[in-house]
């Protein structure tokens, strides 16, 4: 009975406050949440988890040694994926990160567990940016992944001690220069011998992730892998 009443209440509220898909903007129907069925089916999935030498992994060849690397979607401007990332980062949609993380976790499950991954670490935000946004979108994604993968997620080890300018309009060299000496480690001894999965929202040049991975790889016996929600060619 309570379920029926709730359904009627939700249907009534949707008449005045319709929920829309975070990717395409169309109205959601019953049993859809944040993303419509059409977008879930049609988003540009990469299937990089099936390709050890995929384009994300190749970006880091000769830069940092990784166990595996990948991304869930291809990112192009003026597409649903750009809208989805924008909603996640700037429109107060932390629950969207959780949803996408859970979706991606189902895809990654076999790869992550066969490689013995021990811990998820999201790319950290500087405290000033965290205060401004209210949440770290990479942590939301990692938390969603953690729910499915049953691997813990932690923000206590990798710290962003230096605020940086936005990377969006910088060229490749400037992005790398911008990430110099940005991250520090705390309680590093607790990570010795661990396989760490770094989680981010979008991979472009990989400068931020390279800086994070390089810092983690200074710890004895640490192995690092990388995943993100989207990959920008």
From TrEMBL:
It comes from the Bacteria. One of its GO terms (molecular function) is glycosyltransferase activity. The keyword Nucleotide-binding does not apply. Residues 138-228 form the Phosphoribosyltransferase domain. InterPro entries: ComF/GntX_DNA_util-trans (IPR051910), PRTase-like (IPR029057), PRTase_dom (IPR000836). The keyword Transferase applies. Keywords: Glycosyltransferase, Transferase. Belongs to the ComF/GntX family. This is Phosphoribosyltransferase domain protein. It comes from Arcticibacter svalbardensis MN12-7.
């Amino acid at each position: 009975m309570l379920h029926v009443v709730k359904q009627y209440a939700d249907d009534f509220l949707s008449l005045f406050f319709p929920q829309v898909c975070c990717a395409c903007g169309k109205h959601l129907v019953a049993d859809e949440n944040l993303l419509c069925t059409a977008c879930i089916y049609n988003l540009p999935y990469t299937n990089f988890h099936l390709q050890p030498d995929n384009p994300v992994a190749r970006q880091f060849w000769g830069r940092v040694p990784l166990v595996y690397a990948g991304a869930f979607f291809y990112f192009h401007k003026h597409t649903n994926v750009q809208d989805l990332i924008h909603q996640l980062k700037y429109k107060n949609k932390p629950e969207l990160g959780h949803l996408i993380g859970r979706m991606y976790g189902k895809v990654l499950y076999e790869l992550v567990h066969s490689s013995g991954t021990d811990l998820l670490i999201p790319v950290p935000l500087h405290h000033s940016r965290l205060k401004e946004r209210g949440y770290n979108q990479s942590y939301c994604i990692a938390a969603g992944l953690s729910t499915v993968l049953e691997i813990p997620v932690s923000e206590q080890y990798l710290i962003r001690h230096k605020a940086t300018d936005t990377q969006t309009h910088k060229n490749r060299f400037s992005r790398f220069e911008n990430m110099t000496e940005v991250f520090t480690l705390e309680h590093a001894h607790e990570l010795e011998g661990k396989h760490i999965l770094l989680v981010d929202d979008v991979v472009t040049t990989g400068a931020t992730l390279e800086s994070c991975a390089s810092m983690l790889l200074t710890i004895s016996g640490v192995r690092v892998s990388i995943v993100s929600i989207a990959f920008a060619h």
